[in-house]
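Quick question about two entries, pasted in order.
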Amino acid sequence: MIKMKDITKYYSTGFVKTFVLRNIDLEVKPGEFLTVMGPSGAGKSTLLYILGMLDKPSSGEYFFFNKPVHRFSEKQLSELHKHHIGFIFQSYHLIDDLTVYENLETPLLYKKVKGAERKGKVCDMLDRFNIVAKKNLFPNQLSGGQQQKVAVARAVITSPQLILADEPTGNLNSQEGKMVMDLLKKLNNEGTTIIQVTHSEEKAAYGNRLINLLDGWIVD
């Protein structure tokens, strides 16, 4: 499904290069549940953003279902992301001037899902995440935990082949966090590939493979 070869990411300031990722080689098979761990500043979120086609590497090759992502235009990347990837952001990334219902509906509109089917999917997510009463509220009217639940629901509503999760339970209490992790595990058991970034060994245990990042390198 995913093959990365020699992926490097750096930022240049004058003649100085600051490396975030260094020579990353990574393969992910369909149906895997991969956990990425490492200290703050290790490059975990950057790796996730490159995997999600929201950022580009400085060098190296990235193949997604044998498609050369590293050669794609912004429009091609957007199309690939839209149809195959759900992203759970650490900082929610909800659209401030849309209600909870509209935030959930947006990815379905991008995929041109018909009205009746859209409504059914949104209602299902509202019910599954116990946020029916919040459907007409805006993000700034929600608590951090409620915003996180909406962000998770939005990521899974299109039934993507790949879910990328950046600290998916970071703003949830233990019961809500378990609910989200159990849902991700269920989706994984049904065939969805999942890559999560976490600091929690308890959350890492939901996965079936672990890689550690340190100073931009994959370490044993």
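Here is the second entry:
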Amino acid sequence: MRPVINDAFIVESEILDETREIYVYLPPDREGSGFAFPVIYLLDGHSLHNVCASFVQHYSDRGRMPHAIVVGVASTDRLRDFTPSEREAYNGEYGGGGAENFLNFLSDELFPVVEEKYPTRDYRVLIGHSYGGLFVSYALTSKPELFRAYLACSPWFSEADNVMIDEIGKQLQEGYEKTKHFYLAHEPISSPGIEDRIVKMKKAFEEYSGDDFVWEYKRYGDADHSNLPLKAIPDSLDFFFPGFIQD
């Protein structure tokens, strides 16, 4: 089996005022092929890159999805980067509110590097888990033009995020210029209110989505918070790329 990390580089981010490590999985036989590939941007790349890249490699080699590039972004301060507003974290830490900055980092600093270095198509996917799943939802509401497909894996919504969930409903009614695919997944969550808010977002999808917003929801009753990505990532890849051969 080929290695799942074919390239790596760093970005000296002026927006974040720090250095970010980036890990990249590349499809085989890309040099001189004339092909361009969808790009999957993966949050928490330091922990999830090998997981996601392995599924992409396995599925694309077997015709379940097109060949794709995976760009894993290593995390430094998840509370800061993935939350749209300040809040108290599960460990009692208080902070956050840097999601806008982090999204600007992706669009203004990371995308140009990736799209200069590799043969990319205009089809970006965003995958995030927990706080990362919250950020995925924020990216849809804040700059929907950046991504075509989304996996919000157990988005860790707080009460402050109800405003954002309401905004998703308004946005769905207005419609999108290009069709979106959104996969919403979670495990049984015991933290008060979080699962209720996930279901609230699902209900917005049910009530307001049109033909330009294709979505799937799954509650993984046999999963826990740590292993949910192992189940949801492959399912979402099948969902994002319909029309390919299924085993």
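Reply: Residues 7-240 form a domain with the Rossmann fold fold (CATH 3.40.50.1820). The chain has a mean pLDDT of 92. Hope that helps.
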